Amino acid sequence: xxxxARATPPAAEGATLVEHSKIKITSLNLPQQLTLEGLLDYLxxxxxxxxxxxxxxxxxxxxxxxxxxxxxxxxxxFYPTATSEPHREHILLRGFIQTALxxxxxxxxxxxxxxxxxxxxxxxxxxxxxVDPATSDRTxxxxxxxxxxxxxLVWPSLPQLPTMDGVLEELKPLRESLAAASGRASFLGYxxxxxxxxxxxxxxxxxxxLALRPYxxxxxxxxxxxxxxxxxxxxxxxxxxxxxxxLEAARRARFVRPxxxxxxxxxxxxxxxxxxxxxxxxxxxLHQSRELHALVDSAA
Length: 300
Description:
- By secondary structure, the protein is of the alpha+beta class.
- The chain contains eleven helices and four strands; from the N terminus they run H-H-E-E-E-H-H-E-H-H-H-H-H-H-H.
- It has a four-stranded mixed sheet with strand order 1-3-2-4.
- Helix 2 runs parallel beside helix 3 (about 85-100) and helix 9 (about 235-255) crosses helix 10.
- The longest helix is centred in the middle third of the chain and has 19 residues, at about 165-180.
C-alpha cells in the first residue's frame, strides 16, 4: 500500500492550525476528566455512528500504524498491538477523529479489505484508509486534534515526570534518527509547550519505530540479548539495549534493502505514559552507546 507523505507545512502555519484545533476542542465541551472511552462515547453520539476498535495482528500484514474502514453505520479502527498503551490510544484518536469528526477520502485495495475482514462484503464498506499522519490536509488536522486530546489523556502522569526540557533533549537524537530513516514528518515545531512537545516526541518515536519494523532482523535481537546478559544488565536495561539495537539495525537496513515482512513481535511498550517516557529514555541513552553500534556493525 504505497503512498507519499504530505510535506510538513511551515511551523507558523502549523501553529495557526493548533490554535484553530484548540477552538474546535473547546467547542466540543468535553469533560475535564477525559478518558478515551468517554471520548469515543461522545464521538458516537456526535456522529450518530458506532465506533469499534479492533487489534491489527501481524499475520494480517497490513499497515502497522493502523487501518480504518467504514460501513453504512459503523467506523472501525484496527490498531497495532506491539506498541505502548499511550501510542495505541493516540492511533485510535487519530483514526476515530478522522472518521467521526472530519470524514474520510480515498480507500485502500480490495485485497487488503479481504485480509482485514474476510466475511464482510465489499458492497457494505465505504472508505478503507491507513491511519497515518499528514497524508492530506484533513489527516494533518486530525493529527493535531489527536495530539491535543491525547495530551489531556496523559495529564494524570505529568507530575511523575522529571523536568520536561531535559527529557526532550535526551530523546531528541533518537527521535531525529528514527524519523529521518522512516520518512515520517515531525510536527514538534507546531507546539510551544514542553508537555505538548514531549507528547509529540513520544508519539513520533513510536510511529517511526512501527514504520521501521519491516526492516527488523531477529538475529540482532538474539545477539543483543546475549550481549546484555553477559554484561550483567538489569532486566529493564537489557530490554532497552535489545530494543535500541533492533531500532538501529532497522534504521540502517532501511537504506540498503527492501522491507521484509515483520513476523517477530516488537516491544509491547508501557501501559502508562510516565513509564513509557522512562522506557524511551533508557532506549535513547543506549542507542548512542559505542557498545551498541559495535554490536550492530558485527551483525551487518
